[in-house]
Amino acid sequence: MRIGVLTSGGDCPGLNAVIRSVVHRAVVDHGDEVIGFHDGWKGLLECDYRKLDLDSVGGILAQGGTILGSSRVQPAHLVDGVERARGHVAELGLDAIIPIGGEGTLKAANLLSEAGLPIVGVPKTIDNDIASTDVTFGFDTAVGVATEALDRLKTTAESHQRVLIVEVMGRHTGWIALHSGMAAGAHAIVVPERPFDIDELTARVGARFEAGKRFAIVVAAEGAKPRAGSMEFDEGGKDVYGHERFAGIARQLSVELEERLGKEARPVILGHVQRGGTPTAYDRVLATRFGWHAVEAAHRGEFGMLTALRGTEIVMVPLAEAVRTLKTVPEDRYAEAETVL
Ligand code: F6P
């Protein structure tokens, strides 16, 4: 069998572990040939690739980023994108393509699959918002980075009697905010799923100071916003790929809370540090299992499917189902966190 693999969209710790696992399972156990497309779908559309053997994936298990590179380019961006992809798949004699990506990548994978191409998807995102899998690799690493940052920020916040508003990633969902906020014992968490009331948030933070505490930490997912009309708020806009370019929740909340509370407040934006560096052991294992099962699905001819974690098992789910909705933070998970804030 000849397999093509690619990594597309925002990078994520664990991508290299998937690539390594695909190559090992395919080459060692099945005697397959594997090629890696450069910079995501762009590599497939431009027929830009290299052969991957055991040597080329040596030592990459613990490496962050992706040895193949990534981009936000998708077949749908070109008028002849699907036809180009089909042509290159035929030209290269590919029996399977394994795209590793998040929401946008999986939509592109579904489009190509519906056009008849042999696709087995692997989900990735630090945001953990792919509905069909219990967890995506990268999330555990990102939560670890954010939690460590929050632990560190507490000491400086206390020294200066400040309110720190810490912005974490999460465009549409607040999973990183919820988990890191719970893990670090934050004092308030705001997420996109649940527009916050600025009066309530002010009261919550203010109550801490009234009780004699010297600081407060608010964790804000980048996509969180206030309840309509509750405060002036600039939501920002979109980039050329349709991705949100937020005006900055942490900056806007720090101005508002400082004014309302009469306490010094500072915004802290963790940004891409959450996506960089070595994956945790959990993410390496999950990524490796996804890669292994993607190759197996390809050999069974199970195309148009996506690897997913359900409980402790890896299962295959239809791509069409996977791209339908996002996995948002449910109200009861938020309620659990609120009790301990
Ligand atoms: O991978 C998803 C994500 O982490 C979002 O939470 C964030 O908005 C986005 O990536 C930012 O990515 P970039 O700056 O690379 O476009």
TrEMBL record:
The active site is at residue 127. The keyword Cell membrane does not apply. Pathway: Carbohydrate degradation; glycolysis; D-glyceraldehyde 3-phosphate and glycerone phosphate from D-glucose: step 3/4. The record marks 104 as: Important for substrate specificity. Its cofactor is Mg(2+). Keywords: ATP-binding, Cytoplasm, Glycolysis, Kinase, Magnesium, Metal-binding, Nucleotide-binding, Transferase. One of its GO terms (molecular function) is fructose-6-phosphate binding. Residues 2-297 form the Phosphofructokinase domain. GO terms for biological process: canonical glycolysis; fructose 1,6-bisphosphate metabolic process; fructose 6-phosphate metabolic process. It comes from the Bacteria. It is found in: Cytoplasm. InterPro entries: ATP_PFK (IPR022953), ATP_PFK_prok-type (IPR012003), Phosphofructokinase_CS (IPR015912), Phosphofructokinase_dom (IPR000023), Phosphofructokinase_III (IPR012829), PKF_sf (IPR035966). PROSITE patterns: PHOSPHOFRUCTOKINASE (PS00433). Mg(2+) binds at residue 103. The keyword Nucleotide-binding applies. It catalyses: beta-D-fructose 6-phosphate + ATP = beta-D-fructose 1,6-bisphosphate + ADP + H(+). Its EC number is 2.7.1.11. One of its GO terms (cellular component) is 6-phosphofructokinase complex. Catalyzes the phosphorylation of D-fructose 6-phosphate to fructose 1,6-bisphosphate by ATP, the first committing step of glycolysis. Belongs to the phosphofructokinase type A (PFKA) family. Mixed-substrate PFK group III subfamily. This is ATP-dependent 6-phosphofructokinase. It comes from Streptomyces rubrolavendulae.
